[in-house]
Amino acid sequence: MNSMTTPAVQASRGPVTRKDVARYAGVSTAVVSYVVNGGPKKVAPATEAKVQDAIRVLGYRPNAAARALKLGSSETLGLVVPDISNPFFALFSHAVEDAAAALGYALVLGNSDGNLAKERRNIRNLAARQVDGVLLASVLFEPDLEVLETAEIPSVLLNQERDAPGFNSIGVDLAAGARIAVEHLIGHGHTNIGLAMGTNVSGATDGREVGWREALQEAGLPEGPIVYSAFTRPGGYTAGQRLLASVNRPTAIFATSDMQAIGLLRAVHEAGLSVPGQMAVASFDGSAESEYSWPPLTTVEQPVAAMAEAAVAALVGASRGEKPRHRIFPTTLHVRQSCGCP
Amino acid sequence: MNSMTTPAVQASRGPVTRKDVARYAGVSTAVVSYVVNGGPKKVAPATEAKVQDAIRVLGYRPNAAARALKLGSSETLGLVVPDISNPFFALFSHAVEDAAAALGYALVLGNSDGNLAKERRNIRNLAARQVDGVLLASVLFEPDLEVLETAEIPSVLLNQERDAPGFNSIGVDLAAGARIAVEHLIGHGHTNIGLAMGTNVSGATDGREVGWREALQEAGLPEGPIVYSAFTRPGGYTAGQRLLASVNRPTAIFATSDMQAIGLLRAVHEAGLSVPGQMAVASFDGSAESEYSWPPLTTVEQPVAAMAEAAVAALVGASRGEKPRHRIFPTTLHVRQSCGCP
DNA sequence: CACCCGTATCTACTCGAGTCAACAGGCCAG
DNA sequence: CTGGCCTGTTGACTCGAGTAGATACGGGTG
Asked: Where are the domains positioned within chain B?
C-alpha cells in the first residue's frame, strides 16, 4: 500500500492536462494558461521557460473541448455543400479551409446531396456542435432561412445573387458573367447561340439565363434554343444531345457550368462535329478541369479564393457583432480555344 | 401574487442550457440528461413528456463542447488529404463523410497541400480538438507515424499498400490494378507501352510501376519509356510531351492517375495524334472525370465507397479496443474508348 | 404497525481550461 | 523603518453536461 506513495513521474497516463504541466514545472495551473495563450497576465521569462519546457517534455496539448466550453466558441466553422465531389465545390472548400485555417478555425464538412432534408439535418447538426458559423451553399436558389434563424448561428449564404436581408450572402454577378461570355461568342460571328441551362430544386430564374438573353437582345440577335438539365457532366451531355438535335441547331453554345460544358463536349465529339469549328462552346466557373478538356474551355472564372476569404471574414466578423451584408463579386473571362480563339 | 410564480418564459437569453430546461420543466438537471440520452437511469413517462415539452419550447440543444469534455469524445473524425480539389480525394471525402454521418460522426477536413509540415500541423490540430480518429492520406508513400503515435489517436492510413504494424491502413492493390490495365493494352497488340508515373515527396517505388513492369515482363515485352511527374493534370501534360518526344515513342501509355491521363490527352491532341488510333491510353483511379474526357478513359477503378466505409469502421472499432489491421482492396478495370475498344 | 424494497428523483462532484480577486515579495520614496 | 506600489503568482470559481451516490416516496409483506 505505501509502496504506492511515490508519485511515479506521470506513468504515461494518456491525456496530459494543464495540471500535469503545472506540477512538473512547479507552478500553478493559471500560469500554464497564461503561457499557453500569452494570457491576460504577464509571466516572468524564467517561469515561462520552465513551463515551455514542461509542455515540450510532457507533450501537452490543451483540450479543445474544455477551451470551447469555457470560451463559448469552438473555433470551428461548418460548410454545407450539395456535393464535395463536384469540382467547383471542392475548389471552394479548399479555399474556405485555407481561409479558415489562417484564422485558426477548423472546418467541418457536410454534403447535402442536393437534398433539402439532408441540408437541414446538416445545419442542425452543426448548430448542436456549437460551430462559430456556417457557410451554406444551398440546394435552393432561395434557401429557407428559417433553419438558420432558429439555429441562431452566424451564417453566410453562398452562390446567392439575391440579397437576403439579415443574412450574410456572397455571390458572383451571374448575369454579367454570362453576358461577357455570350458577347465573346457573338464577337466570333455567331448568330445562333444556344443555352445549356442548369437547374436547381427551386424554380427561380438564374442570372446566367438573363445574361445570355440580354447579350443576344443587345446585339439584335434572336434567342437560340434553351435546354434545361442538371449542373453536371451527364446533364451537360444530354443537354448537348438535345441541342444538336434541335430544329435550328446553334453554332455556339453557352453552358452554365464547366461540368455541363465537359459533358456537352462529349456529345459534340460523338456527333463527329469539331470544336470550335462546327460548334463553339463557352461556359461558367473557371474550374481546373476546364483547362484540360479538349479543346480547352473558354470559361467565365469565379474568384473562388476571394469569395471564400470574404465568406470566412464575414463569419468571424459576425461573431464580433458586425452586421450582415451582401457581396457580389465580379467574374473574368478566361479565353481559351473552345470559343474559336487560336 | 401568482404573477411572480410564473417561471418567466426565458427572456431569450442566447444559449439555452440544461438548467433552463430543468427549471422550466420543474425537474432536476439530471433528469434532463436522462431524457436527452435515454440516460443511464429510467424516467417516468409523465416526467419525460414534461421535459420533452420544455426542450421543444425552449429550443434546447445540448452543448457539444461540454459533452465532449465530459465524455472525452467529440463524435468527430478528422480527414487529412493532400488536396480536396483533387477529384479523387474529393470523391473519397464525400464517401468518408457519408460513412461518418451514418454513424453520427462529423468530419473535420484538412488539406496538407502536399506539404509535410502542413500535414503534421493538421494532425496536431485535430489531436488537440479531441477528434475520435483521423484518416490520413499522407503526402508520403511511407508516412511518418511518429506524429500519429505521439498524438495517441486512433488513425487509419489511406492509400497505403504496405502494412504499417500497429496502425490501421487501407489501400488498393496498385500492382494488380496496373497489371490488368497494361495487360489490356497488350491485348490490343501494343508492344511499346510507356509509363507516366506520378511522384510523391518520398522516394519509395510505387506499386503501379511494378505492376506495369510485371505485365510487360510476363508478355516478354521490353520496357517502354518512363517519365516521372506530378500526379496532376499539368504533370500528365508535361509527361505526355516528354513521352511523345522520346526516341522510341510508345504507341500506348499507362498513366498512374486519371488526372495525369487527362493532361496527357491534351498533349497528345496538341501533337495532332488521334486517341486511341495513334496513341492508346489507360489510367488509374476511376474518377467521374475519366468518363467525360475525350475519348473517355479506360481506367482502373478504386472501390472508393467501400474503402471509406472500411476506414471509418476501423476508426470506430479502434475506439472500442479492436486491434489495428491492414486491408487491401481489389480494383476493377473500366473499359472505355481510350484503349482502343469501340 | 413496522420494516423492507423498488422506483423515481435530486444533489453534488467531475471533466480541463480561462481568468479574476487576492496575495506575496521586492523596491523605492519619504 | 514604514508605507505604498508594482510585478508575478496563486487559489478558486466558472463554463454545461454525465452520472454515482444519496434520498424521498409509496406499496407490499410480516
From this structure: 2-62, 75-173+304-329, 174-302
